[in-house]
Write a structure and sequence with these properties.
The complex is a heterotrimer of chains A (329), B (309) and C (339). Chain B is mainly alpha-helical. Chain B is built from 12 helices and no strands. Classes of the chains: A alpha/beta (329), B mainly alpha (309), C alpha/beta (339).
């Protein structure tokens, strides 16, 4: 297999608050291979967004206090701000959740979409605009020449997100990080945007990190998936395997608690008991153990380490690492 | 009707009963207050203003036991004395003790300032609440009235008022408030419009609350922080206006001492008795600076926009 | 006395009639322009809806943003004034009721809101929030009030000790429980749930859904459940109504709608929903709609969905399709329905 494009090793990012330090990212490692789509799944507070922002060194006011991010042989956590500016938008592009606020309302859309190529490839205004218009067309915006002259507020949510994707692609980056790109959109528009992302991945060969809380989106878009909880990776592996036989109780319980469109009516849902953890005051040992129905004594003492469980999956769970199967009522 | 007996037979998701932060209960007011207390400059300035106000209130006590002078008493033979003993800050052209006059003057200036703030807050808040909550015709009419008052050139009004009658502290406060309440009304109305949109107002209406309840129990407490900030920042400004009016002869007239009109007299004697200008001037400067700094501290502590969830 | 009138009407109304009857309901919002604020157009948020809700059932209302589902919910509960049409509650016409009579009805109808962070007054304690309905309707005072508040908190799964705390100290799911406790305070029969779980974490959503179902069984509640997530609605609702641009385009019993949708919009909505199963997702046939939702200010002529409909034909532009019956309680408004 080819060398991974992006590697993250034991990353730690911390936010200082008046009540204590929030360990937003607490020892996260991942690998992204060329051309693949990796999903990072988790709920609010799981650290998935902060992980992506830390890769881009956009995590302020948080601080990266440990670990490394290796891209093209360089550790990005140690790069200078100038070096990061070169990489952002050119090698690694990012699109955000809320298209309403991620585009500047006082500049024309085309101008903004053209900005990365102007900055990184030094194109003059006319050439940069031509690139922008062509990309707007490729992402499915009709009559892109006229639309490029419109302001963001004249676009609908879905169109704005397409424009953001266009902006990310103009410099043909190697890595695209999409942070909840469809969460703020209607479900039929979401389908359009996800379809677009699939085409982009195919036609441009861009490796994509897709961050979402929606397990259905991950199932349809990502070859590999990483599940995060309380700032740590609890499970990772090929999507098909993780969904078919999850090896971490959190993943397992989550899959069972979601109402499914293809389910027969009407079995009561099996929710995960308890509440998400307080990131300032994490439980001892495994962060999930207070809510876990499989826990044993060791779980409250020792923090589990991510290890191989089964043929293709990694899971951070003492119970499954010792060979037990997850089965339940 | 919920029957308590029936309800206890419910199967409750047990772990959900626990939870919530382990830190002690803290209302928004407590948190704001603590933030304010943590701001040392703010606390210092607030204490300073408080001390000045207390001295002003206790002016007769001070004049009796500390300075031993009456503010109006003239010692013509002792005029233009430099600071020293027994006139701690010197005397003016009529031999009146500067320190005592400053203390009594503080009564006037601070008294007018606080009264003005109280008047413009009361009127402005009432108008802003009604206009913001009801909207429609009441809003249109009230806001046009506010526009009229805001459009009146203040100096013009002050000159007119002082020609028509000799302002005393109360009427002066009313005059200055009449120019300022419009800004408060606009501010409150804006805040009401924004709070009104929030779901909890709709929720309270859905359980059957009447207008008055919504306005006083729900809108007002949520609008209060903005008001507190505006009041704190406004005091300094009003002190300056008041002093300026007195200085120009449009406000409190001599022989009643006020910081502003002490400057009027001192103007003519600046070159040989400079301290007559320095002391009232520095007092005004320090008071206004302290109240502005305190106002900033209050704004940092109470402004909900700075709060992170 | 309003109480006596109410009692009389309750006797006239029988349990077999629908609890809520809506006919021809329209809620339009004026769009003003210019210095004089003249009304130049209307946002036709709800543009002609007929709906019956039977006692004890859960009717799901789904649709995307701009379809009018929230507006419909709020109009039925009279938080908004209808522009046209009628709303009947237990046989009584409440379309234009105001004042004390409407307040009396508010004891029987309640609403749960979407945003747990905005639906609770941040300056009130949890106990005061839950107890406010008791105060407004003068139901209980002193110790009795305290007891009721504690009981309500217990019923929704919250520790009654939390009554002295403030909303910002709690998580989204807990705040939603507080909102539910407030809605239950005076013992309503009908609750409009306006996207009650959309703003919650996935692992908490199931807790709240189960709570709502338990409460419905114990207190014989009737729900109008508004959501954009069809998977959730399928689970909780007896019948599901699909809205588009202010009108109900299809309504059917739960399973029916999903097994055999008739309206093309329902079909594309169903195919757009991601299913957490990679094998199913990879092999799904997707109907991806073109374009964006049309504007509720100036809806397309004839069938409103025709501008995005993959099955549109010329006659779709000429007249609006009426709701037609396609089987047991299954209605759809389409000239060329799906098979």
């Amino acid at each position: 297999m080819a060398q991974p494009l992006l590697e993250v090793h034991d990353l730690h990012t911390v936010f200082a608050t008046k009540n204590g330090d929030v360990k937003a990212v607490d020892g996260v490692s991942l690998e992204l291979n060329p051309g693949e789509t990796l999903g990072i799944v988790g709920e609010s507070g799981s650290g998935k967004s902060v992980t992506a922002l830390s890769v881009m060194r956009l995590q302020r006011p948080g601080k990266i206090v440990g670990g490394s991010v290796i891209y093209k042989g360089r550790d990005l956590t140690k790069a200078t701000e100038g070096e990061m500016r070169e990489i952002r938008g050119q090698d690694i592009a990012m699109i955000f959740q809320d298209p309403m606020t991620s585009l500047n309302p006082v500049f024309r859309t085309g101008w903004q979409v053209a900005e990365p190529v102007r900055l990184h490839h030094g194109l003059d205004r006319a050439k940069a605009m031509a690139v922008a218009v062509s990309m707007l067309g490729r992402v499915g915006i009709p009559t892109p020449e006229t639309r490029a002259r419109d302001y963001p507020h004249q676009f609908s949510g879905g169109m704005r997100q397409r424009a953001m994707i266009a902006m990310g692609l103009t410099t043909t980056p190697k890595v695209l990080i999409a942070d909840e790109p469809t969460t703020a959109l209607d479900v039929t528009i979401q389908a359009q945007i996800l379809d677009l992302l699939r085409h982009v991945n195919r036609d441009f060969g861009t490796a994509t990190i897709l961050i979402t809380h929606n397990l259905g989106v991950v199932a349809g878009m990502c070859e590999r998936v990483m599940v995060m909880y309380a700032g740590r990776v609890v499970e990772s592996g090929p999507t098909v395997d993780v969904f078919a036989h999850p090896k971490h109780p959190y993943t397992w319980s989550l899959l069972r608690s979601i109402p499914r469109l293809d389910a027969e009516r009407h079995e009561p849902l099996k929710p995960i008991d308890g509440l998400p953890p307080d990131l300032i005051d994490l439980p001892s040992g495994c962060a999930f153990h207070p809510r876990c129905q499989f826990k044993v004594e060791r779980c409250s003492r020792d923090t589990p380490v991510l290890n191989r469980v089964g043929e293709t999956q990694l899971a951070a769970c003492w119970v499954t690492q010792s060979g037990a199967e997850l089965k339940g009522a | 009707m919920i029957d308590p007996g029936q309800a206890s037979a419910l199967e409750l998701p047990a772990p959900a009963i626990e939870g919530g932060s382990r830190r002690p209960a803290q209302s928004y007011w407590n948190e704001s207050w603590e933030r304010l207390r943590a701001n040392r400059i703010g606390v210092f300035c607030g204490a300073l203003i408080l001390v000045l106000a207390l001295i002003a209130i206790a002016a007769p006590v001070f004049s009796q036991f500390v300075t031993h002078f009456d503010p109006a008493r003239q010692h013509l033979s002792d005029n233009f004395r430099s600071p020293g003993h027994p006139y701690l800050l010197g005397t003016d052209e009529l031999g009146r003790d500067t320190l005592t006059r400053l203390i009594y003057g503080g009564r006037v200036t601070l008294g007018v300032a606080f009264l003005t703030v109280a008047l413009s807050l009361t009127l402005g808040t009432t108008v802003g609440l009604v206009a913001g909550y009801y909207g429609g015709w009441p809003d249109d009419i009230l806001m046009r009235v506010v526009d009229v008052f805001l459009a009146i050139p203040a100096i013009f009004l002050f000159i007119l008022m002082s020609i028509l009658f000799r302002p005393n502290a109360i009427t002066l406060a009313a005059i200055i408030a009449s120019v300022g309440w419009g800004g408060v009304a606009r501010l409150v109305r804006g805040e009401v419009l924004s709070v009104k949109q929030r779901d909890f107002i709709l929720a309270t209406r859905s359980i059957g609350a009447r207008d008055l309840r919504l306005i006083f129990r729900h809108l007002l407490p949520n609008v209060l922080p903005v008001l507190i900030v505006a009041a704190s920042l406004g005091v300094g400004q009003i002190i300056l206006i008041e002093a300026a009016l007195d200085f120009l002869g449009l406000g409190i007239q001599p022989p009643t001492a006020s910081w502003g009109n002490m400057l009027t007299n001192a103007e003519s004697y600046f070159f040989h008795s400079g301290w007559l200008v320095v002391f009232p001037g520095v007092t005004i400067f320090v008071t206004v600076l302290a109240s502005n700094l305190f106002g900033n501290a209050v704004r940092d502590a109470f402004d909900p926009r700075l709060k992170t969830h | 006395m309003p109480e006596a009138v109410q009692a009389q009407l309750k006797r006239a109304w029988t349990a077999s009639s629908p609890l809520v009857t809506v006919r021809g309901l329209k809620t339009w919002f004026p769009v003003t322009s210019g210095v004089l604020q003249r009304t130049v157009a209307h946002v036709r948020a709800v543009d002609g809806v007929d709906l019956d809700i039977k006692k004890g059932e859960t009717v799901g209302l789904v649709g995307e943003s701009g379809c009018g589902k929230s507006t419909l919910g709020r109009t039925i509960i009279r938080l908004l004034d209808p522009t046209a049409g009628t709303i009947e509650y237990m046989g009584e016409d409440i379309t234009h009721q105001r004042g004390e009579r409407m307040r009396a009805h508010r004891r029987d109808m309640a609403m749960i809101f979407q945003d747990p962070y905005a639906s609770l007054d941040p300056r009130q304690t949890v106990g005061d929030i839950v107890g406010e309905p008791l105060d407004i309707h003068r139901i209980a005072k002193g110790k009795e009030r305290q007891d009721r508040i504690y009981e309500l908190l217990r019923v929704v799964g919250m520790n009654p000790q939390f009554a002295d705390r403030y909303p910002h100290e709690f998580s989204g799911g807990q705040r939603q429980r507080i909102g539910i406790a407030r809605a239950l305070a005076v013992g309503p029969s009908f609750i409009v749930c306006d996207e009650p779980i959309s703003a919650l974490d996935v692992s908490i959503q199931a807790q709240i859904i189960n709570l709502l179902e338990n409460l419905q069984a114990k207190f014989d509640l009737t729900y109008l459940f508004i959501a954009h997530d069809l998977s959730v609605v399928k689970h909780i609702a007896n019948r599901v109504a699909v809205m588009y641009l202010g009108k109900i385009v299809e309504i059917a019993p739960g399973g029916q709608l999903y097994r055999r949708p008739r309206h093309p919009y329902t079909g594309s909505l169903l195919s757009a929903i991601p299913i957490p199963d990679p094998l199913i997702e990879r092999n799904r046939e997707r109907v991806i709609l073109q374009g964006d939702v049309a504007s509720p200010i100036d809806p397309p002529s004839g069938c409103r969905f025709r501008t995005r409909c993959p099955r549109a034909r010329p006659d779709c532009a000429e007249s609006e399709p009426p709701l037609e019956t396609f089987g047991d309680e299954h209605l759809a408004a389409c000239f060329h329905p799906l098979d």
